[in-house]
Amino acid sequence: MRRMTARPANAHQARLLRLLRDGGPNSRAQLGDQVDLSRSKLAVEVDRLLETELVVADGLAASRGGRRSHNIRLNPHLRFLGVDIGATSVDVAVTNAELEILGHINQPMDVREGPVAVFEQVLAMAAKLRATGLAEGFDGAGIGVPGPVRFPEGIPVAPPIMPGWDGFPVREALSQELGCPVMVDNDVNLMALGEQHAGVARTVADFLCVKIGTGIGCGIVVGGEVYRGTTGSAGDIGHIQAVPDGRPCACGNRGCLEAHFSGAALARDATEAAEQRLSPELATRLEANGTLSAVDVAAAAAAGDATALDLIREGGNRTGQVIAGLVSFFNPGLVVIGGGVTGLGHTLLAAIRTQVYRGSLPLATGNLPIVLGELGPTAGVIGAARLISDHLFSPA
Amino acid sequence: MRRMTARPANAHQARLLRLLRDGGPNSRAQLGDQVDLSRSKLAVEVDRLLETELVVADGLAASRGGRRSHNIRLNPHLRFLGVDIGATSVDVAVTNAELEILGHINQPMDVREGPVAVFEQVLAMAAKLRATGLAEGFDGAGIGVPGPVRFPEGIPVAPPIMPGWDGFPVREALSQELGCPVMVDNDVNLMALGEQHAGVARTVADFLCVKIGTGIGCGIVVGGEVYRGTTGSAGDIGHIQAVPDGRPCACGNRGCLEAHFSGAALARDATEAAEQRLSPELATRLEANGTLSAVDVAAAAAAGDATALDLIREGGNRTGQVIAGLVSFFNPGLVVIGGGVTGLGHTLLAAIRTQVYRGSLPLATGNLPIVLGELGPTAGVIGAARLISDHLFSPA
DNA sequence: CTACTTTTTCCACTCTCAGGACAAAGGCGG
DNA sequence: CCGCCTTTGTCCTGAGAGTGGAAAAAGTAG
């Protein structure tokens, strides 16, 4: 099939496309209720969108008491690719124009192998999805990488955990390979976008999205838009000092949040506890697998292991203290906790909540929900699809 | 003179008014270069503005090689009132439409005397300024209060240091008394606006403005706009924990930044040092005045007093640590330090810089200026004038 | 089948706005 | 002082956007 290349010609068309994306198929009449346009104008714009094949007519809608309206929907052949590159694994998903996931693959992979190797794998995964018949090609792709990005160019800058990627033209390279427009962003920002689009943050304009995985980062949404900071490193909270004169961190400082709590830190703490025989539960798991990860701690905690619970609680307290500061500063309407470590569940959440509600002023916490992300591992790829669709569904 | 009541009728007119406000008098031709409008359209809009008397023709501009253009300027009779209510003093200033300060009064006053008493004084000060012939009335007023504000309504909410003000309809009351539109905001946000308009932050889209006075607050500017948070308490960094298990704070927690460093904390520390005879310099000043304030510490430090310097340095370190965290999180393009305590000058600034540059990642600090505010005590009133002018110079 | 709704199309009319033509005003070299 | 140039301001026309009424089309309810 021939790929769509058209873009909305004006703000009205862009508005309509986003309504169809977020609200699904819609009758012309319903669209008219949602935008402030005269019937004639609306008809003209819809006709033009039909001409470009960005949207298609799709049968008749149910009657609202009179003549039935024609349904309009985004072209069902449109396909977006969402890629979420984590520190230790890659997620690739295909969505339709309504950003519903049609297919999703996850594979372990070390981001430190460098952009060339990772790209090869991402393209292979995309090809595999295509081979299932879900897509014949892609109309756009969004990709998240675990580090700061110069957003307009789509180039990682000085990413600590993926050294080989510094300055690599991710956007351009992927665009070449896939033959479609590409947008690149930090993985945490994409998680925030995902939760905003289809998760817990649908109705909130200003919120924080804390992702605790191998590292810790925070997506910042201001007025419904992701805030990226001057150099694209906003939300990099893993290296905020959580413990004065605490543990040494890879960044050269001491006491960074990430050094005390994150997937990596937790695995190390657990291993240590197992070796010192503080926790029989963890010790058996270490013997069984050879290594320990956050998943093991979660399992041990679920089994009631006191040491594991302590580790989670302490980490949650530290994280909560940092978040409390951010809440005082940013006064968000919602805090979302996500990332791999959220398997730790309510023990973690309870510790974070305690610290935030205690450490911030009542005016800021009074009506502040602190919740786990709703989308789990799909938040990133949905956010990626959302990123590129936002780009494509805006006036050219 | 009859007050202006007109408002720009559309976005073009608003744009022109702001250009004239920020760029001063301008020829019609120069205006044409700055906005993307046809000559005819521009002429029409300018004519309409002339009709409303918001702008006036003002002689001929210098030739640019051909026919000389007519100059256009904002009506020189327009007057804005800027009010900055601090914890312990009030600033009132009159500006023209270009936000140049024509007259400025400062008076000590305790905000805890409540809104009625403070209003009386503010109105008296405004009357005094009017009596000098600077203004015959006001076309708009901006007012800053030292606490969180529900911005759309202009009502303080749960302000810790001004209990009597909770829920008092500042905007409506002042608007009644002055007979002109009024906007209310947090004093820190107004300082940020002031520095953005006429100070060090003129060219920066995203920055932080830390005000260290009786308390500590932080103005947040995102994309050129003040960010106020969900409940209007964004930037309330005084109660971020700076010292684990530190001093008890009025808010009920321990170790708040404000409890360890602020005008109030500094005065108490200085008094204690003087009483314990640790600092002869401070001791003599205490005997002379009966009390000590930040000013005394600044003077003692300037005279080389080691204790005073230590107090400043330690406070700067604490503040710097907190700011370092905020810089990691927010990745601003500039940090401005202002407020009453900035009399402590470079000792303070050096301490803050050290902590920030050491405690945040290079990508965030690489090109991050940390500077003192340029406007000193006038930042607040200029920001207040800017606030109301932004409101009035926007489409009705 | 009739009366009433809702949706859609068609059309005439208004309004905005860009850009060309031209007049007005000034600079500059001779 | 005089032509010739540039810049500025004004007027006018034509293209396009957009509105809202009228009527046709397609249903529903009784």
Automatic annotation (TrEMBL), chains A, B:
Belongs to the ROK (NagC/XylR) family. PROSITE patterns: ROK (PS01125). This is Sugar kinase. Signal peptide: none annotated. It comes from Streptomyces pseudogriseolus (Streptomyces gancidicus). Gene3D superfamilies: 3.30.420.40, Winged helix-like DNA-binding domain superfamily/Winged helix DNA-binding domain. One of its GO terms (molecular function) is kinase activity. Keywords: Kinase, Transferase. Pfam families: ROK.
